[in-house]
């Protein structure tokens, strides 16, 4: 088996940290981020049976004021159809318009891919109630196959993401 999983989210939510943890779990190869028109390869996770290519989808992070950007966003969203799972990463403490923008782009791509909401940096959250206002709003707007509180730095629930990624191939 071989397949692609996209790690998606606005800057600074912890995508790179998560990727490093995902690749650090077992034997892995990291690529030098070659650019393709549709995706940037972030890293490749390999075990005996399966190979998962983790990708970034740069167009999803562009704001839509200019027509060319809208076009790129649409291309990026539809290219996610190649992907068996999307990990949408948010910062557990802060929900911003940029998160909302990325989430809206995610919704535009169709296909039967899975979507996992990874609420990152939970190691930083003392008051778990602080999560709920935006979490309720999120689950109204979008259906997630799984919602996972994670800590990319500590590794909390990172193995679960890897298991879901492998199962999605
Ligand atoms: P990216 O821009 O989405 O790739 O985010 P980075 O992986 O570069 O992380 C942005 C910042 O958040 C860095 O300072 C990380 O150390 C920090 N960070 C990432 N994951 C976690 C986490 O699980 N807990 C905490 N406390 N900080 C984190
Ligand atoms: Mg990064």
TrEMBL record:
<keyword id="KW-0694">RNA-binding</keyword>
<comment type="subunit">
    <text>Monomer.</text>
</comment>
<feature type="region of interest" description="G4">
    <location>
        <begin position="120"/>
        <end position="123"/>
    </location>
</feature>
<feature type="domain" description="Era-type G">
    <location>
        <begin position="1"/>
        <end position="169"/>
    </location>
</feature>
<keyword id="KW-1003">Cell membrane</keyword>
<protein>
    <recommendedName>
        <fullName>GTPase Era</fullName>
    </recommendedName>
</protein>
<comment type="similarity">
    <text>Belongs to the TRAFAC class TrmE-Era-EngA-EngB-Septin-like GTPase superfamily. Era GTPase family.</text>
</comment>
<feature type="region of interest" description="G5">
    <location>
        <begin position="150"/>
        <end position="152"/>
    </location>
</feature>
<feature type="region of interest" description="G1">
    <location>
        <begin position="9"/>
        <end position="16"/>
    </location>
</feature>
<feature type="binding site">
    <location>
        <begin position="56"/>
        <end position="60"/>
    </location>
    <ligand>
        <name>GTP</name>
    </ligand>
</feature>
<feature type="binding site">
    <location>
        <begin position="120"/>
        <end position="123"/>
    </location>
    <ligand>
        <name>GTP</name>
    </ligand>
</feature>
<keyword id="KW-0342">GTP-binding</keyword>
<feature type="region of interest" description="G3">
    <location>
        <begin position="56"/>
        <end position="59"/>
    </location>
</feature>
<keyword id="KW-0472">Membrane</keyword>
<keyword id="KW-0690">Ribosome biogenesis</keyword>
<keyword id="KW-0699">rRNA-binding</keyword>
<comment type="function">
    <text>An essential GTPase that binds both GDP and GTP, with rapid nucleotide exchange. Plays a role in 16S rRNA processing and 30S ribosomal subunit biogenesis and possibly also in cell cycle regulation and energy metabolism.</text>
</comment>
<keyword id="KW-0547">Nucleotide-binding</keyword>
<feature type="binding site">
    <location>
        <begin position="9"/>
        <end position="16"/>
    </location>
    <ligand>
        <name>GTP</name>
    </ligand>
</feature>
<keyword id="KW-0963">Cytoplasm</keyword>
<feature type="region of interest" description="G2">
    <location>
        <begin position="35"/>
        <end position="39"/>
    </location>
</feature>
């Amino acid at each position: 088996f071989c397949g692609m999983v996209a790690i998606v989210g606005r800057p600074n939510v912890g995508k790179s940290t998560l990727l490093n943890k995902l690749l650090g779990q077992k034997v892995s190869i990291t690529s030098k981020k070659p650019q393709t028109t549709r995706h940037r390869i972030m890293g490749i996770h390999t075990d005996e049976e399966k190979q998962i290519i983790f990708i970034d989808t740069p167009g999803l992070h562009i704001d839509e004021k200019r027509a060319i950007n809208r076009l790129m966003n649409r291309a990026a969203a539809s290219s996610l159809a190649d992907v068996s799972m999307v990990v949408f990463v948010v910062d557990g403490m802060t929900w911003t318009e940029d998160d909302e923008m990325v989430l809206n782009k995610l919704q535009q791509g169709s296909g039967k891919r899975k979507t996992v909401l990874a609420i990152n940096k939970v190691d930083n959250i003392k008051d778990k109630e602080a999560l709920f206002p935006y979490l309720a709003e999120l689950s109204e707007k979008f259906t997630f196959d799984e919602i996972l509180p994670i800590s990319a730095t500590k590794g909390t629930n990172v193995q679960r993401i890897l298991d879901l990624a492998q199962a999605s191939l």
